Amino acid sequence: MAADKQTSAVVLAAFLGGMGVLHFVKPEPFDAIVPSRLPGSARLWTHLSGVAELGCAAAVAVPRTRGLGGLLTAGLFAAVFPANVKMAYDYRNKPAKQRLIAYARLPFQVPLVLWALRVRKRAHQ
């Protein structure tokens, strides 16, 4: 069981770290889904969310901060949901494959939040 706890946390940290880096390496897709109602530029929000993902990755990767990291990660996954809704709306007239990808992101947030909360819970066991 201890190995499972560790593996889940390491995979989550790697996922967050990879996505965080992607916000800086290839920011354009992220810029495109930033809700226009947010103040400032889309690129600013892309970079801020990338920093948040990298910070969550670091917190989840370290056993001492894993519990807090799991909680912050769950909050981050919930916070980006409006961007996924915007993407789904914006893609409503795109080809079927692109629409499917955009629409699939919506329910995918639920297991991501639950995964982060499970990592948090396991950190305290």
UniProtKB/TrEMBL annotation:
Residue intervals passing through the bilayer: 7-25, 69-88
Keywords in alphabetical order: Membrane, Transmembrane, Transmembrane helix
PANTHER family in the cross-refs: DOXX FAMILY MEMBRANE PROTEIN, MEMBRANE PROTEIN-RELATED
Protein name in UniProt: Membrane protein
Organism field: Allokutzneria multivorans
